[in-house]
Write a structure and sequence with these properties.
CATH topology of the largest domain in chain A: Sulfite Reductase Hemoprotein, domain 1
CATH superfamily of chain B: Aldolase class I
CATH topology of chain B: TIM Barrel
Helix content of chain A: 25-40%
CATH architecture of the largest domain in chain A: 2-Layer Sandwich
Distance between the termini of chain B: 48 Å
Number of helices of chain A: 18
Number of helices of chain B: 5
CATH class of the largest domain in chain A: Alpha Beta
Largest sheet of chain A: 6 strands, mixed
Radius of gyration of chain A: 23 Å
Number of domains of chain A: 4
Shape of chain B: globular
CATH architecture of chain B: Alpha-Beta Barrel
Number of strands of chain A: 21
Distance between the termini of chain A: 53 Å
Structural class of chain A: alpha+beta
Strand order of the largest sheet of chain B: 2-1-8-7-6-5-4-3
Oligomer: heterodimer
Helix content of chain B: 25-40%
Shape of chain A: globular
Radius of gyration of chain B: 16 Å
Chain lengths: ~550, ~160
C-alpha cells in the first residue's frame, strides 16, 4: 500500500500542530463557534448527541496492521473501546472529548493517518472497491488513481470552502462495488478497444434528501487527464453551486438545474484550460510511480489448491463461511476473506478494540499485513492462501468475526442513528437488532439469497436506505419514531432508487412488515430469482398488499 | 488603523480607500469601486489623478477577469469566510490571466483561511476589524509543504520524479 514520503509526513504532522493551536484558541475563546466549526469539521470532528464524534480517514479503505493497532488504541484510550466503520470506508469514534482530539490526530500521524477532510464542505475521502487489485473482473487496479486523487484533494486551497460536501468514488472492475453512481463524481476505469486506459466520468449522483443517480459527463477521459478534468468539475461547481440553501447546494442540484449537457460543456470549456496546466498533467512516469506503491504481494506458489476442498466436504460450518464470506481471487490458490462485522449482538459495522487488534494480527499472519474496509461496513483480508483458510476461520470465529452472513439479509448497512447522531430522527441500530432477532435462522437467510437491507435514521441517508433492496428510513412523526420502507433500490451497476412501499410504519411494526415483504418474495419468486429480480418483475403491488394486510 | 497585511507584512500606510457606490469620486487618491460602478463609469473613473482598483465578489463571472488585468489592485470580497467562490477568481487571475498586481481579500477575512487564500494568489488581506492582523501573520508558516504547488515552490510530484 501507499507509504508516506517526507512530504506526506510533514504535511500531516503540520496539520496536527495547526489543529492543536486552533483547538487551543477555541477553548480560550479566541475563535467563535461559527469560526471553529469548519476547522474542526475538516479535521473530522462533529459535535454530536452525547459527545463529539471523530471520523478518521481510511483512504480508499486500505489499512496496515500497524494502522489497525492504532485505531484499536484510540478506541481503548480515548473512547469506550469500539469504533464504527462507515459506508465510505472510514471509522468513527463516538465519545472522544474535544480537548483530546489533537492528541488522537498526533497518534494517527505516527502511522501515516489523519482525519483531514472527513467532514465539512470539501472534497472527502476518496473511496473504492474493497477487492481492488485482486478482483477477477478487474479492468485495472483503481488504487494508484485513488492515491493521486487523495493527494490532489488534500488541503486543496481552492476547494476548501465548497458549497457543500463532495464525494468521489473510483471503481476498476466490471461490477461496481464502490457505488460510483451515487457519488458526486463516480470514476469507472475503462480500456478502449486499442488498449488505452481511462475513465468514464459520472457526476451528480448522491443519496441524502434528494437521491439522484449520477449521469455520464464524459464517456472516456484518458488517464493522464484525470486531475485536470477533476479540477475543471470542481471549479465549475465551486463557482456555480448554490450557496443560499444548504439543502440545494450539492453538485447534483446544479447538474439538474443546468441539465447534464450544459453542465458538461461548462466543464469541457474549463478543462481546455486546466488540461494545459503542467501541475495537473500526469506523465506516464507519474502514473507508473504511483502504481509502484501497490505491488502484488509475494504470493506463495506452493499453495495446496485442494486444501479447502476436503474441509468443504466434511465441515458444514466451514462450508457456510467459505461460501458466504470468501471471494474468488486473481491469484490461483488464494481467496479474499470478508470479516463480518455483522454479528447478531453488535451494531452493524462496529468493532471493539480487541477485534481490531485481532484483525491486525490475523492480517499479519494470513494476509501480508493489510486489511480493507468495505462500503458494506465489513473488513476484508484480501490475500489469504486457500490452505490456511480453515485456521483463519477458527481464529476469526474466536473473536466473533466469522458470522457467515455476507451479502445476506443480516449483512445490513446501518448508520449510528438516534442513539448517537444529532441529525437522526429515529433509531437504526435497535431496528437492526430486532431484524437480527426475528431472522435468526441461517438456513432461512441463505434461502433468501442476496438481499441488501439498508437502514438510515434520517433522510440524510448515511445508511444508504435509498439504494437498499429493502430500505428502511427513520422519520419523526409528532415525536414518535416511524419508518418509511422502500423496495427495489440498488447501488450496483443497475443503480436504482427504491420505491416507497406506502405509509411509514410505527417502530413496533417494522419487523412484522419486513417479514410480510420477505414472505411475499418467497411466494412470488420464480426459480433462483433474487429479491431484486422478483421485485422488478412483479412490481410494488403484491408487496404492498401483503405488507399492509 | 488599517488591519492590513501585504506580502506577509503589516502595512500601516495603505493608500487605498474603498468607495461606496453613493460616494462621490475624489479627484485624486487611490480608490476602489464596486464591479457595478466600474461597469457603469469606467471612462470617468480612468480620467482622474490617482490609481483605481475594482472590488469583486463571487457573483462576478470569471469570464470578466480577462478585462481587469491592467488594474493595480483587485479586491475580492468574502461576504462570509465560508463563501469560497473567490478562491477561484484569485487562482484564475494569477494562473490564467497572468495578473501581477495586488489581489486583496476583504470582508470576513480571518487567520484560518489566509494560507489557502495566499496559495490561490491573494497577497493582501484586510483582516476583520475585531481580529489582530499581527496574530494572523502566524498563519503563513503553518505548512511548509503542499500537494498542489504554488508559484514560488515546485510541485511535490515533480520533485519526486527527479
Amino acid at each position: 500500500m501507499y507509504q508516506y514520503d517526507q512530504y506526506d509526513q510533514q504535511l500531516v504532522d503540520q496539520r496536527v500542530a495547526q489543529y492543536r493551536d486552533q483547538t487551543r484558541r477555541y477553548l480560550a475563546g479566541e475563535l467563535s463557534e461559527d469560526e471553529f466549526r469548519p476547522l474542526r469539521l475538516q479535521n473530522g470532528l462533529y459535535i454530536q448527541r452525547h459527545a463529539p464524534m471523530l471520523r478518521v480517514s481510511i483512504p480508499y479503505g486500505l489499512l496496515s496492521s500497524a494502522q489497525l493497532r492504532v485505531l484499536a488504541h484510540i478506541a481503548r484510550t480515548y473512547d469506550k473501546g469500539y469504533g464504527h466503520f462507515t459506508t465510505r470506508q472510514n471509522i468513527q469514534y463516538n465519545w472522544p472529548p474535544l480537548e483530546t482530539v489533537p492528541d488522537i490526530l498526533a497518534d494517527l500521524a505516527t502511522v501515516e493517518m489523519h482525519a483531514i477532510q472527513t467532514s465539512g464542505n470539501c472534497i472527502r475521502n476518496v473511496t473504492s472497491d474493497q477487492f481492488a487489485g485482486i478482483a477477477e473482473d478487474e479492468v485495472e487496479d483503481p488504487r494508484p488513481y485513488c492515491e493521486l486523487i487523495r493527494q490532489w484533494a488534500t488541503l486543496h486551497p481552492e476547494f476548501a470552502y465548497l458549497p457543500r460536501k463532495f464525494k468521489i468514488a473510483v471503481t476498476g472492475s466490471e461490477r461496481d462495488r464502490a457505488a460510483t453512481q451515487v457519488h458526486d463524481i463516480g470514476l469507472q476505469l475503462q480500456r478502449t478497444a486499442d488498449g488505452e486506459l481511462g475513465f468514464r466520468v459520472l457526476v451528480g449522483g448522491g443519496l441524502g434528501r434528494t437521491p439522484i443517480i449520477g449521469e455520464v459527463v464524459r464517456e472516456f477521459l484518458p488517464e493522464r487527464e484525470l486531475l485536470g478534468y477533476l479540477e475543471a468539475i470542481l471549479r465549475v461547481y465551486n463557482l456555480l453551486g448554490r450557496r443560499d440553501n444548504m439543502y440545494k447546494a450539492r453538485i447534483k442540484i446544479l447538474v439538474k438545474a443546468m441539465g447534464i449537457d450544459a453542465f458538461a460543456s461548462a466543464v469541457e470549456k474549463e478543462w481546455q484550460h486546466t488540461r494545459q496546466d503542467p501541475a495537473l498533467q500526469l506523465e506516464d512516469a507519474d502514473i507508473a510511480g504511483f502504481k509502484k506503491h501497490f505491488p502484488a504481494p509475494a504470493y506463495r506458489t506452493d499453495v495446496d489448491t485442494a486444501g479447502a476442498d476436503r474441509l468443504l466436504a466434511g465441515n458444514a460450518d466451514f462450508q457456510r463461511w467459505y461460501r458466504r464470506n470468501t471471494v474468488s481471487h486473481q491469484q490461483p490458490g488464494y481467496r479474499a476473506v470478508v470479516v463480518s462485522l455483522k454479528a447478531k449482538d453488535r451494531a452493524p459495522g462496529d468493532a471493539t478494540d480487541a477485534q481490531m487488534e485481532a484483525v491486525a494480527e490475523l492480517a499479519e499472519r494470513y494476509s501480508f499485513g493489510e486489511a480493507r474496509v468495505t462500503h458494506q461496513q465489513n473488513l476484508v483480508l484480501a490475500d489469504v492462501a486457500i490452505d490456511t483458510l480453515e485456521a483463519l476461520w477458527h481464529e476469526l470465529d474466536q473473536h466473533g468475526l466469522a458470522t457467515p452472513n455476507v451479502g445476506t439479509l443480516s449483512d445490513m448497512i446501518c448508520c449510528p442513528g438516534l442513539d448517537f447522531c444529532s441529525l437522526a430522527n429515529a433509531g437504526s441500530i435497535d431496528i437492526a437488532a430486532d431484524i437480527n432477532q426475528r431472522f435468526d435462522d441461517l438456513d432461512y437467510i441463505y434461502d433468501l439469497g442476496e438481499l441488501r437491507v439498508n437502514l438510515s435514521g434520517c433522510m440524510n441517508g448515511c445508511g444508504h436506505h435509498t439504494v437498499g433492496h429493502i430500505g428502511i428510513l427513520g422519520v419523526d412523526k409528532k415525536g414518535e419514531e416511524f419508518y418509511q420502507i422502500t423496495l427495489g433500490g440498488s447501488s450496483s451497476n443497475d443503480a436504482t432508487l427504491g420505491d416507497r412501499l406506502g405509509p411509514a410504519v410505527s417502530k413496533d411494526r417494522v419487523v412484522d412488515t419486513m417479514e410480510s415483504i420477505i414472505h411475499a418474495y418467497t411466494d412470488l419468486r420464480e426459480g433462483e430469482e433474487s429479491f431484486l429480480e422478483t421485485y422488478r418483475r412483479v412490481g410494488m403491488k403484491p408487496f404492498k398488499e401483503r405488507a399492509y394486510a | 488603523m488599517p488591519n492590513l497585511i501585504r506580502d506577509r507584512k503589516l502595512v500601516d500606510d495603505d493608500t487605498w480607500t474603498h468607495l461606496d457606490d453613493e460616494q462621490p469620486v475624489p479627484a485624486s487618491g487611490d480608490v476602489t469601486v464596486s464591479w457595478q460602478r466600474w461597469q457603469a463609469e469606467a471612462d470617468t473613473l480612468r480620467n482622474r489623478d490617482g490609481r483605481l482598483g475594482v472590488r469583486l465578489d463571487g457573483d462576478v463571472p470569471v469570464e470578466e477577469l480577462a478585462g481587469l488585468t491592467e488594474l493595480p489592485l483587485i479586491a475580492l470580497h468574502f461576504p462570509a469566510f465560508k463563501d469560497g467562490r473567490c478562491y477561484s477568481h484569485a487562482r484564475l487571475l494569477r494562473s490564467r490571466h497572468g495578473y501581477a498586481g495586488e489581489i486583496r481579500a476583504i470582508g470576513d477575512v480571518l487567520r484560518d483561511q489566509l494560507a489557502y487564500m495566499e496559495r490561490c494568489g491573494i497577497n493582501a488581506f484586510e483582516i476583520r476589524e475585531d481580529r489582530s492582523a499581527d496574530e494572523a501573520l502566524q498563519a503563513f508558516d503553518e505548512f511548509s509543504v503542499d500537494y498542489q504547488g504554488r508559484s514560488e515552490r515546485p510541485f511535490p510530484l515533480r520533485l519526486r520524479r527527479s
